[in-house]
């Protein structure tokens, strides 16, 4: 997955330096004065029987991420969470500003565990919508993820991460 990420950076015209713990310092090849610091986190193996749908929802992939969000993250511009499709081995990336992930997970006390580690599970649905499905039960899944006439109840909520899916434009504009 790291090689796919680094290939994508090159394709975007970004040069990079790798630091410990999967931190990357990115520079635009045509403007080396601008830098962006990102942290790449790769998904754990996603066991569908453990993390998958309890109501028969169809999805393309599951991303399971466990990481520590430290005080040092204040100078990190983005988190990039990478995971592979179950069906076609395509790699997708969630590109989210550090402040946004903190707002959604830490400040809302949704994903911080006792040992100060973040645990988050994403489902990438067949229609390319991406949802945080960490610890959801069958009833929540049925209520929020069932596709209705006007979309899903989860659309546009804190659980909807679709706007961050493969949105490389965010890094390019930084």
Q: How would you describe the overall organization of this protein?
A:
With 174 residues, this protein is an alpha+beta fold. It has one domain (2-173). It is 21% helix and 34% strand. The protein has a five-stranded mixed β-sheet with strand order 1-2-3-5-6. The chain has a three-stranded antiparallel β-sheet with strand order 4-7-8, with no helix packed on it. The radius of gyration is 16 Å and the shape is globular. The two termini are 24 Å apart.
The count of domains is: 1
Strand content: 25-35%
- Overall pLDDT confidence: 84
What are the secondary-structure elements, in order, as H or E?
Answer: HEEEHEEEHEEHH
Structural class: alpha+beta
What general outline do the C-alpha atoms trace? globular
Cα-atom radius of gyration: 16 Å
Number of helical elements: 5
Largest beta-sheet details: 5 strands, mixed
- Helicity, as a percent range: 10-25%
Low-confidence stretches: none
Number of strands: 8
Features:
five-stranded mixed sheet, alpha+beta, 174 residues, 21% helix, 5 helices, 34% strand, 8 strands
Can you lay out the helices and strands and say which pair or pack?
Layout: H1 2-11, E1 14-19, E2 23-28, E3 31-42, H2 48-51, E4 59-68, E5 78-84, E6 91-97, H3 98-106, E7 117-125, E8 130-132, H4 138-145, H5 169-173
Parallel strand pairs: 3-5
Antiparallel strand pairs: 1-2, 2-3, 4-7, 5-6, 7-8
Short description:
Helices cover 21% and strands 34% of the residues.
């Amino acid at each position: 997955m790291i090689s796919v990420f680094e290939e994508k950076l090159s394709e975007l015209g970004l040069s990079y330096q790798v630091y410990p713990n999967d931190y990357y310092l990115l520079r635009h090849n045509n403007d080396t004065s601008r830098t962006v610091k990102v942290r790449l986190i790769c998904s754990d193996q996603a066991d569908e029987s453990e993390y998958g749908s309890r109501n028969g929802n169809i999805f393309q992939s599951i991303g399971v991420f466990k990481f520590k969000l430290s005080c040092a993250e204040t100078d990190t511009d983005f988190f990039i969470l990478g995971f592979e499709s179950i069906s076609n081995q395509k790699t997708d990336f969630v590109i989210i500003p550090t402040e946004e992930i903190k707002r959604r997970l830490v400040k809302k006390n949704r994903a911080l565990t006792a040992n100060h580690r973040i645990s988050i599970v994403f489902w990438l649905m067949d229609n390319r919508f991406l949802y945080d499905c960490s610890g959801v039960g069958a009833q929540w899944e049925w209520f929020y993820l069932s596709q209705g006439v006007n979309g899903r109840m989860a659309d546009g909520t804190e659980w909807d991460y679709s706007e961050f899916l493969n949105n490389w434009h965010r890094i390019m504009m930084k």
